[in-house]
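Quick check before the chapter quiz. The format below is the same one you will see on the exam, so make sure you can read both the input and the output lines.
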Amino acid sequence: MFDPREKVALFIDGANLYSTAKAIGFDIDYKRLLKEFQSKGYLLRAYYYTALVEEQEYSSIRPLIDWLDYNGYKVVTKPVKEFVDSTGRRKVKGNMDIELAVDAMQMVDHVDHVVLFSGDGDFRSLVEALQRRGRKVSVVSTLQTQPPMIADDLRRQADHFIELATLMQRVGRDPNERPQRLNEDDNEDEGEEY
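Here is the expected output.
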């Protein structure tokens, strides 16, 4: 599936990858993830996309974002938008699909193989556009949940589907390696997955 001569770029939909890994029961070790794909070809870029709640004094994802930014990832963020829906409930929205798609199309002339970490069916047309430009596209997600975390049309469009569970041994973090918290009363949350 990978040729060692290929220039590879990773595009990680952070919220989607986090949900997928949690659904199949493991934490991603982002240092090991980078090494895994560096071993498969020339890793040109690794992008990580996530939305942030800016007015919070402490964001649980901030330590992960800072670590990724200093350790080989190009982190792309934007503030979440808050709104009130028709029933009067407060909702937040933080979709990064457009940013990911624009960056992928801007990189298309510099890479041979795009690896998309998302199961979001909205990316099917991006995958098709990259393929029309002669690029190989692999999609990483899972079929092991019910329902599957990957949209069927995205999986069919991709050149290769990589089952995230098959990467668990190589990119998963040992739960015993989890850093100790300063305040043990804090709740578990997604910001600790690095």
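If your answer matched, good. Confidence is low (pLDDT under 50) at residues 181-194.
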